[in-house]
Amino acid sequence: MKVLVVDDSRAMRAYVRGALRGAFDCTVVEVSSGFEALRILPRERFDVAIADINMPDINGLELIRFVRGSERHRGLPLIIISTQAADRDRRRAIELGASEFLAKPFDPDDIVRAVGRLAGGDQER
Q: Could you tell me the domains of the chain?
């Protein structure tokens, strides 16, 4: 399994990477901005992407629009993680096409379960 993690926080990327590598036999590719995600998506294939909403250039909601509007990436499962966790924020992300929404802070098991559901848990350790 190959997972793309998009978050401007190095600590959050490490947290997600640690949770996923502890549960799955997977490769985690980390980028610190939505712009970097848009550069890497055409070059690599991912089983799931995890993105923060609040990022300095292209935010997570804009990333959802790109992924869902792209013929090649339309089916990519996309988990949004954010401190903006009001019902309207969650609803907006889901309406745009997010597969899941997790409010920060979240338990590592939450991200593991979400990835397992969306990318298939057959690669669990």
A: 2-123 (3.40.50.2300)
